[in-house]
Structure of Signal recognition particle receptor FtsY:
Amino acid sequence: MDTNSVIYLVIGLMALVLAIIVAALIIRAARKKGSRPDATGISTQSQDMPPVDSAEGTRSSTATGTVTSGSPESASPQMTVPAIPQVQTPESATSRLIRLRARLSKSANPLGKALFTILSKNHLTNSDWEDVEDTLLLADVGADASSRLVDQLKSDVRIQGETEPNTVREMLKTRLLAIVDAGMDRRLCAELSETQVPNDQKPSVIIMVGVNGTGKTTTAGKLARFFVAEGRTVMMAAADTFRAAAADQLETWGNRVGVRVVRSDKDGADPASVAFEAAHTAKEQGSDVLIVDTAGRLQNKANLMQELGKIRRVIEKTAKVDEVLLVLDATTGQNGMAQAKVFADAIGITGIVLTKLDGSARGGIVISVQQELGVPVKLVGLGEGPDDLTVFDPATFVDGILAVN
């Protein structure tokens, strides 16, 4: 064998050895990066795996926006799929109304007890009637309404010649029902049937207003559940960009029932921009309802009017605003009336939502706020549960505030 042949043979052998070494290194690296069996023998990701959310049974990845769904035992190796939130089924409107009626009928009300004590007398003196009026005032019925109610009741008793306590109480119930005004239209536009709302008029836009602390954002979330239970498609807008937790809170409510929330990634962003984007998106996607949560700051009336007015204007470039609902805390009573008037002047309201009505002896706020603002109470919150929001029913309300059992 000549010298050149030897050189070529050595070079060939060295190339073969180098190829084998490189292949071995590649295989080794692949094994390190690959999956390893766990105790059950099912492959799971071994590197940089985010923690398991024990409540949901999902693995989340903020870097990729994807998650591995299910437990490690049931997942395929390295497989990622879109997150599937655990969507709750809200209680139907009919069911919650029945439940909340029962709650009202079983709870004794201080107003009912006080009136029962006074009206149980066989002969009512002028002093007794004054006590009735004072009791109504303490329940936040309002001065004008209380005075008128007592005058009407006294006239009924005198004309009909009735002194029997049960009959007098029934007269009071009838008068209370009349002053609450059972004939008011308390329906929300979004409750109208599909045939009553053409597609080109969707979404039905509801703007939620009220000072912070009244439960406005929570009520927006509960209202979304209410419509989802009725088969409506809902979207929410987090236009309260000044309270850091407001958007997160609204998104939590939305995630529970599969409702999308349009929000800004930056605190303090322009609320009108969020509202405009939400209206455009809801229109584009054909949503039935858009609920817009707004800030409850009250630095001064001019500032509030400017901000809320701008939100309404930009929304109406895309969709009609059907409702502006003022959220009031029933426990604040007459103290909340001044705030209510500010919002009424700022944006114009179509209805009232009274929260915490179950824990208040001041149920008469329903009467006074309707008379002061000239708009009906449409929804009431009667508890802290996610489905403890229902339509306001005048007969149930009057029975509730007169309950003594």
The chain has two domains: 96-180, 189-395. The two ends are 117 Å apart (CA to CA).
